[in-house]
Amino acid sequence: MLYTTQGIVLHNIKYADKKIISKIYTKDFGLISANINIGTGAKAKIKSGVIQPLTQIEFIVSLKENKDIQQINEVKCLFVYTDLQLNFSKLCIAQFLNEVLYKCIKEQIPNDDLFDLICNTYQWLDKSDSNFVDTHIYFLFELTKHLGFYPINNRDNSMAYFDTLEGKFSSSIKSFPLGFDHWQSTLFADLFSHSILNQKKINRSERLALLDCLLQYYKMQIPGLIELKSYNVMQEMANEM
Known about the structure:
Elements: E1 2-16, E2 19-26, E3 30-37, E4 56-62, E5 69-79, H1 88-104, H2 112-127, H3 135-147, E6 161-163, E7 168-170, H4 182-190, H5 204-221, H6 231-239
Parallel strand pairs: 3-5
Antiparallel strand pairs: 1-2, 1-4, 2-3, 4-5, 6-7
Helix pairs in contact: 1-3, 1-6, 2-3, 3-5
């Protein structure tokens, strides 16, 4: 049966000259894998440029139950980035987030709030003139809501140390990555009071620490989560800011 839906491209695998299998997070069906025939000529129905990772698209898919790979027949771009592809820092952030999404999202069920978060974050990142360098930090924190392990905000003087296994603050300190020290826990707790649209200015050492803390928390909550290839790039970018 044919459906029209929206999606954002997370990952492509080329398996022939003019064929790819694409992982797309969709508004109506969650994560799907789709076979796409691409071309470069004037008569090509789907050109490779419109199906690149990060692209926000509307497409027609032939959806069949109990089939792992669907077929996409028509695609059009919904949002044209004007700065993201040209700004190295923005592109690094977007590619990092895309890798996180590709490795963390597995569900084939719709989630309007998550879909909107992804699309709106990329659009905001593209349009933002400043204050975007910590977008990945706040996105990772917000994403935990949709992945099912949003931390409990119970920190006080007696519960000062974050426990990455329990997902809440504890009275006793555990060695990293099972838990955060007092400084790390303070930085982490500050994330509850801010967001992508209301970012707190943080310095280089804080940025690096928060990225490490968030990724270790993800690893404790998602069994089998493997290393992110773009992590080193994010570290280098943080060192230059």
